[in-house]
Prior knowledge:
By secondary structure, this protein is mainly α. It has a single domain (2-429), classed as A middle domain of Talin 1 (Up-down Bundle), CATH 1.20.1420.30. Helix content is 76%, strand content 3%. The protein has 17 helices and 5 strands. Strands 1-2-5 form a 3-stranded antiparallel beta sheet. Helix 6 packs antiparallel against helix 7 (183-203). The longest helix is centred in the middle third of the chain and has 36 residues, at 223-258. The radius of gyration is 22 Å and the shape is globular.
Amino acid sequence: xxxxxxGAVAGAVALTAPWTVLWATGNAHAFSTLATVAVSxxxxxxxxxxxxxxxxxxxxxxxxxFAIAVLAVLAVAPEYAVDAxxxxxxxxxxxxxxxxxxxxxxxxxxxxxxxxxxGIGWAGIALFTVxxxxxxxxxxxxxxxxxxxxxxxxxxxxxxDMVFLLLATLWAFIVPINGGIDILDMIVLVGLYVAxxxxxxxxxxxxxxxxxxVPAYLQSFSRPYRIATVLLLFVYSGVMIFTAVEPFAHGLExxxxxxxxxxxxxxxxxxxxxxxxxxxxxxxxLVNKARSTAGFNALISSKLNQWTLLIGxxxxxxxxxxxxxxALPFDEKQMGxxxxxxxxxxxxxxxxxxxxxxxxxALVLLFLFLTQVLSEFLxxxxxxxxxxxxxxxxxxxxxxxxxxxxxxxxxxxKAAARLLRQAxxxxxxxxxxxxGQTGGAD
Length: 442
């Protein structure tokens, strides 16, 4: 394990090395836009790995409450870096075309990251779990007769995450109505995550899982060396992300404009791939080790983090840059993007309400995601003509997700009721100690 772990760390550091040299020597912008995007993007990718490994390793030493709350923020840090950059620009240049575009790009990156996590992450990992060699030995894989009937069984302990994700999803449908991400959205979405954390802590629900690979190796260090290693990983990866994210994001904008693709498409679909890749690779590693349940749990928890913390705190960054409170504005198309992202999340949760996902269901989830992205790309490149606008196309896909999701929830209403009862029981148990103590005192 030592050799593999050191090799993985060395590989991640190697991805950041070219950018480190360019930035340290002041030559970060001395090359072509394509070269700058490639080098800075690889740096974000490598730093994301290092940040994730450092965060997981730290769980062995920090207090549990601190670990759950702070490490949740670290989990979305790479995605948040791009979002925060554009939210900041939107505030600095509020009321100007540049500020309006920056607000739209912040929403585009957020919705893209969330849809990639489900459309590629949930669907792709489910397919990989069932179709990989050795899947018959994985206890999480259910072998069933018939085409595309095999399924991945999920851990029922993830039920609380699913209910809170459903609540955040339902609120997300309301977000565009006010024409911006405002203080109420922050209170509700961040409040949901805080409530989730409180319930986990009070109910002693196991939120983490046994670590493997690099974190497992680093956790074997003596405490002083382990802490020093974690701090080094945090500082180094933080510097890499902080210095590389602006040239990476702005470079993508320029590349898109040079080839006739709008900036928001590049920021929505290309930028999130760099930050999401480390997590997806780690999950693939877990699945390949027949730890499918832990892998899927990680993806669902990550979606909850992104769908609450990532969205809810953008208004804070925007307001700080603005110099006063203000709601992060976005245009009509981004309203459609948020509704579509919420619709996809709603449908995906309907698929998982019975704590499993089949090959057939994963294929539908992947197909809908790829069809929407491809259709939008073809429209942008004028290779496809439709009698509706981009915004209306987003609404059509949102409607499809909602119809399928509502149909599944109705068909699986008993499973949904069990899920809600289970989550309610977890909440009740989390606060039952205080009730019991109060009753005894009376």
